[in-house]
């Protein structure tokens, strides 16, 4: 089957298949991508004749046609205008021109199927399955950070072999590897490798150098194409960076600096989503979770003859003030009881939000339907849900079922006497890929730019979730268990000390009863010897997602929210925190933990910690010129600029703090620089904060930790009474 698709300037399309006998390319002519124009509302009657006249002789339009399509899930088929475009790269420009000429006499128009990514569009319109039929071969190309600027690389790693020297030597190594392996996929540390290698080849006069499979000597060959430039964006308060994207004919590119699913899963996980979304490998590799979820939804819409809106225009339906107040509450939260709790059990609802969608039929096309407006199907809200099965159920139920089957397969593989590690890795990659899609499906319903989202769905899912979690809490407490924390889809319980053991009901029995009652499986997730819930800094209330605990019967710990789980934490600080956690587990003694901390602080001041273990990684939120404070990030950015390195907002910068008292670029050293010293006082503070996270559930803050370190322990009452 086709695994990557190239579009030539003359309109031809190249379909590439990976077979056991090598790559096969098929040329296709006459492909004309299609966009649609229709009335924004059913009662509109636009003058399509005027639009057709405008585009009759348009150089980018191959033709127009009146067809019947559904402009939305809640609408019946209507007459719309289809415009066939001569090249996939001209669709958006034609749509914008149509917007400009769609003046008032034409009518209030809506545009559809405009902003689909080009390979995905091709697969959708031609019914092409981009799932590879055979295993794909890969070649990895990586450059170190200092080499990422300039017009030439002096060092480059090809798979596991590092090549350095002249541009001719580097290019020769790449070309030899391509000829030897003929990879289907290029896994690049940065996609900028593609244009840089071509610039190097041009400067060296190597006309035959090529990364692709469509040779330039054909006369119609292409070296590479730039699909998009780099950009910075903001999402949920976080600044991100999207690197430029490139294409080489006949091979898919995975840019490791711009791929979520490849990092969070593996190639098997990515390919599983390819088969479900019909979004080809290269596009899926750079796509976000929401982008892939949307592609799966678009497939379902396409099967139902529903068009994809260019710009979402769904308005929020009117609701009473009481309903608005109730709807805006969010999910279930039972604040954690700060402290260290012994004998804790965790129970989780399996894919709670996706299962709420499927079991309660929560979907944009059926929520608040007019045919049952007298009903209040959503608890606490005045929302009716139509009896007709919603399209979102058909999108998610196969994903839920598939992940359940994969989890069963993983369990069986692990139970084998000799599990197959490759099969396990593939199964876990597929499971993880589906997990991320299911996690996102709830939030995406409330996303303003979602193609098919609806805020009422988001509110209804939360309302059902609150009811389900409260019912579970009530049942567990009636069975003799005390809830110490609950959030979204998880509940932690300990035996209620006021209930005698014979009267306490079995947890798995209670979970089965709750499952039967709510229609969603409540799973026994884990048993902990103890769990500690961490308070918010400077407060007595518990942090909702910051806890750690010892998993019963193992030497493992579950960590959430503390420094060892934070991406910016230096490896040394993480290691020390984990070691101190083991001491706490063994002794339950804050003093013993501080003793261990003191040893590690001594190593710091003795200069016996390798600088590579002190590297911090922080995300840059804005350009250097926009910072007003002299932060460590600013110092690192100044050093990077001094060395000719470009770090965009949304990208990470890595450094070691060498003198935190300074406010200049001398405050830090970049991770790739030779580092001969570091600031022990700064890293001592980092260590104390990490240990505070462990000891704060026991009432110790950083002041108490420093006091213990200084040997000024508060005298115990027994010192005055002589009693122990």
UniProtKB/TrEMBL annotation:
Catalytic activity as recorded in UniProt: DNA(n) + a 2'-deoxyribonucleoside 5'-triphosphate = DNA(n+1) + diphosphate
- Report the residue ranges that make up the DNA-directed DNA polymerase family B multifunctional domain in this protein: 299-697
Transmembrane helix as a keyword? Answer: no
Show the InterPro entries listed in the entry. DNA-dir_DNA_pol_B, DNA-dir_DNA_pol_B_multi_dom, DNA/RNA_pol_sf, DNA_pol_B_thumb, DNA_pol_palm_dom_sf, DNA_pol_type-B
Cite the Gene3D superfamilies for this sequence: DNA polymerase family B, C-terminal domain, Helix hairpin bin, Palm domain of DNA polymerase
**What SMART domains would the database entry show?**
POLBc
Q: What EC designation does it have?
A: 2.7.7.7
Per the UniProt record, the lineage of the source organism begins with:
Archaea, Methanobacteriati, Methanobacteriota, Stenosarchaea group, Halobacteria
Listed GO biological process terms: DNA-templated DNA replication
SUPFAM superfamilies for the chain: DNA/RNA polymerases
- What UniProt keywords are attached to this protein's entry? DNA-binding, DNA-directed DNA polymerase, Nucleotidyltransferase, Transferase
Q: Which organism is it from?
A: Natronosalvus hydrolyticus
- Protein name, UniProt field: DNA-directed DNA polymerase
Q: What are the recorded GO MF terms, alphabetically?
A: DNA binding; DNA-directed DNA polymerase activity; nucleotide binding
* Alphabetical list of Pfam families matching this protein: DNA_pol_B
């Amino acid at each position: 089957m086709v695994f990557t698709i190239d579009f030539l300037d003359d309109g031809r399309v190249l379909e590439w298949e990976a077979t056991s006998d090598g790559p096969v390319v098929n040329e296709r002519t006459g492909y004309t991508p299609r966009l649609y124009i229709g009335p924004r509302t059913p009662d509109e009657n636009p003058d399509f004749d005027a639009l057709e006249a405008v585009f009759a002789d348009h150089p980018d339009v191959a033709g127009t046609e009146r067809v019947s399509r559904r402009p939305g899930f809640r609408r019946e088929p209507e007459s719309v205008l289809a415009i066939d475009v001569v090249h996939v790269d001209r669709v958006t420009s034609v749509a914008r021109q149509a917007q400009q000429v769609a003046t008032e006499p034409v009518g209030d128009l809506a545009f559809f199927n405009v902003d689909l990514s080009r390979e995905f569009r091709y697969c959708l319109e031609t019914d092409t399955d981009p799932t590879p039929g055979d295993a794909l071969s890969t070649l990895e190309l990586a450059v170190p950070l200092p080499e990422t600027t300039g017009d030439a690389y002096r060092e480059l790693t090809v798979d596991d072999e590092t090549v350095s020297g002249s541009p001719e030597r580097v290019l020769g190594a790449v070309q030899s590897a391509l000829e030897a392996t003929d990879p289907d996929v290029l896994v690049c540390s940065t996609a900028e490798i593609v244009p840089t290698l071509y610039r190097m080849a041009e400067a060296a006069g190597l006309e035959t150098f090529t990364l692709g499979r469509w040779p330039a000597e054909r006369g119609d060959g292409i070296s590479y194409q730039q699909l998009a430039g780099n950009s910075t964006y903001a999402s949920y308060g976080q600044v991100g960076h999207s690197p430029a994207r490139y294409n080489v004919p006949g091979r898919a590119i995975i840019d490791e600096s711009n791929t979520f699913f490849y990092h969070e899963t593996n190639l098997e996980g990515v390919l599983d989503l390819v088969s479900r979304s019909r979004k080809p490998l290269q596009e899926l590799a750079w796509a976000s979770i929401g982008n892939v979820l949307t592609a799966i939804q678009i497939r379902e819409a396409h099967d139902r003859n529903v068009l994809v809106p260019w710009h979402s225009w769904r308005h929020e339906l009117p609701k009473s003030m009481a309903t608005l107040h109730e709807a805006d509450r969010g999910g279930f939260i039972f604040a954690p009881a700060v402290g260290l709790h012994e004998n804790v059990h965790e129970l989780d609802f399996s894919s709670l939000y996706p299962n709420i969608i499927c079991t309660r039929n929560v979907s944009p096309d059926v929520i608040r339907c007019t045919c049952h407006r007298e009903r209040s199907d959503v608890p606490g809200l005045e929302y009716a849900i139509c009896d007709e099965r919603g399209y979102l159920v058909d999108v998610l139920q196969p994903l839920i079922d598939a992940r359940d089957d994969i989890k069963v397969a993983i369990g069986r593989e692990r139970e084998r006497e000799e599990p197959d590690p490759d099969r396990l890795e593939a199964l876990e990659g597929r499971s993880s890929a589906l997990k991320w899609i299911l996690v996102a499906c709830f939030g995406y319903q409330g996303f303003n730019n979602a193609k098919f989202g609806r805020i009422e769905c988001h509110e209804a899912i939360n309302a059902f979730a609150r009811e389900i979690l409260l019912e579970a809490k009530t049942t567990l407490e009636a069975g003799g268990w005390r809830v110490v924390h609950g959030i979204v889809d998880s509940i932690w319980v300990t035996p209620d000390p006021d209930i005698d053991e014979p009267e306490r009901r079995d947890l798995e029995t209670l979970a089965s009863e709750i499952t039967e009652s709510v229609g969603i499986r409540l799973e026994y997730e884990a048993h902990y010897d103890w769990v500690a819930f961490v308070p918010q800094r400077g407060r007595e209330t518990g942090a909702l997602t910051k806890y750690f605990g010892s998993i019963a019967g193992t030497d493992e710990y579950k960590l959430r929210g503390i420094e060892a789980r934070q991406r910016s934490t230096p490896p040394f600080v993480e290691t020390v925190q984990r070691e101190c956690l083991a001491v706490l587990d063994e002794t339950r003694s804050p003093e013993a933990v501080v003793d261990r901390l003191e040893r590690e602080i001594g190593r710091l001041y003795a200069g016996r910690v390798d600088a590579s273990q002190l590297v911090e990684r922080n995300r840059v939120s804005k350009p250097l010129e926009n910072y007003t404070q002299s932060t460590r990030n600013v110092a690192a950015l100044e050093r990077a600029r001094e060395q000719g390195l470009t770090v965009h907002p949304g990208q990470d910068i890595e450094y070691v703090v060498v003198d935190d008292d300074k406010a200049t670029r001398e405050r830090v050293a970049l991770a790739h620089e030779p580092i001969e010293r570091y600031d022990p006082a700064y890293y001592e503070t980092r260590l104390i904060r990490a240990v505070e996270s462990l000891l704060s559930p026991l009432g110790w803050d950083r002041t108490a930790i420093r006091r213990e370190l200084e040997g000024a322990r508060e005298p115990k009452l027994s010192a005055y009474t002589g009693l122990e």
